[in-house]
Amino acid sequence: MPKRNYNYTFTVFTPTYNRAKTLHGVYQSLRLQTFKDFEWLIVDDGSIDETKKMVTKWQEEAEFPIRYIWQENKGKYVAFSKGVNEAKGEFFINLDSDDSCVSFTLEKLKYYWDSIEEEKKKMFSGVIGLGMNNKGNLVGTKFPENVFDSNHLDIYYKYKIKGDKWGFYKIEILKEFLFPIDKEERFMPEALILNRIALKYKTRYINEKLLIINYRSDGLSANSVKTRMDNPNSSVFYYKEFVNMMPVSLKWKIRSLINYSRFSFHAKKGITKQIKGINYVIMKGILILILPIGFYFYLKDSKS
Question: In terms of pTM, does the model score above 0.85?
Fold first, then answer.
C-alpha cells in the first residue's frame, strides 16, 4: 500500500466561541480515547473569555497534539472551512465545544470504516453513529439496520430518521464541498454540505451511541429560527438549492419552498425575485400558491 499523506488518522475539530466553561468536556473525553492516533484542532471564532489561556495549559500537559487557531468572529461555518483546510488527519470529526463523546468513539469509528470492502471505500464519505443525552438516552431514532449504507438525504427524507447523528467524513471529500462564504453573514446550514455529499457518496450509518449532547439555551439548535432570520441570504441560498437540486419527495420540496419564501421576505426579496430563483415551472407554480404561507411565517417571525 502507498504511504498515506496524513499525519493522523483523525482530526477532531472543535469550533468555539466563548465556551471556556464547557470546552473542558471535550478535552476530558479526548483524554480517555482508547484510539490515540488523532489531533485536536480548535478554531476559536473570536472568544474574549479564558479559552486561549485554558487551551495553552492543556497543550502543555496533553498526551495528544492540540492546535489552537484564533480568528475574528465570522461564524461557525467559516471556522469549519478553516478547520478542514488546516486538518492533518485523514478523517474529520466535528465535536462541538459543549458536547463530548464516549471513550471508545474513535476506535469504533475506525473499526466500522475498516469493515467497508477496500474496493468500495472510494464510494463512501465516512461513518456516522448515534447521539445521546447526558443520561445515556438515545436522541431521536435508530437507523433501519445496525450497519446501514445510505446517504444524508435518504436517511432524513426517505427513512425519516430523527435526532442528531454524528461521526466523521473523509477530509478529501469535505475539501470538495467547502461552504460558500458570505462575508456579510455568520451562518450557513451544515445540511448544505451534507446534502451535496449525498448526491455523490454513500455513508455508513451505525447504531452505536457515541456522541453525548449537551443542549444549551444559547446554542444554534435552540435558536434556529432567529439564527436564520439574522442570516436570511444564507437561508434563502440553502432552501433554493434544496428545492432546485435535491431528489426528495414533493412534500419536502413544498416545506422548503415555504421556508424559501419566508426567509426571502426577511432578505427583502420581492415576489418576482423569489419566482425567478426557482428553476422548474411546476415548482414556480407551487411557490405562487404558497406565498401567503411564507408571508405569514415572515410576519410571525417579525413579531416574536
Answer: yes
Question: Which residues are CB-contacts of 302 (< 8 A; sequence separation ≥ 6)?
Answer: none
Query: Would you say residue 1 lies in a domain?
Result: no
Flag whether 2 is in a domain. Answer: no
- For residue 4, pLDDT over 80 is answered with no
**Measured distance CA(178)–CA(180) in Å, rounded:** 6
Report the candidate in 206, 204, 207 with the shortest Cα–Cα distance to residue 117.
204
Cβ-based burial of 1 (10 A; exposed 0-12, middle 13-18, buried ≥19): exposed
**Domain assignment of residue 256, yes or no:** yes
Query: Could you give the CA distance from residue 123 to residue 105 in angstroms, rounded to a whole number?
Result: 23
Across 108-259, the runs of DSSP E, i.e. the strands, are 124-132, 147-150, 165-170, 202-212
Structural domain tally of the chain?
Answer: 2
Query: 239-277, pLDDT tens digit by residue?
Result: 999 999 999 999 999 999 999 999 999 999 999 999 999
Which grid coordinates are listed for 18? 466563548
Question: Residues 257, 293: contact at Cβ < 8 Å?
Answer: no
Q: Which of 180, 212, 244 is the last residue of a domain?
A: 212
Q: With respect to residue 122, please indicate whether it lies within any of the assigned structural domains.
A: yes
Task: For 106-138, write each residue's pLDDT tens digit.
Answer: 999 999 999 999 999 999 999 999 999 999 999
**Residue 240's domain spans which residues?**
224-303
3-state secondary structure of 102: coil
- Give the domain CATH number at 153: 3.90.550.10
Residue 263 and residue 140 share a domain: no
238 to 32, 63, 111, 174, 179: CA distances (angstroms):
38, 40, 34, 17, 11
Q: Are 100 and 212 in contact (CB under 8 A)?
A: yes
Domain end residue (candidates: 212, 243, 274):
212
**206 and 268, same domain (yes or no):** no
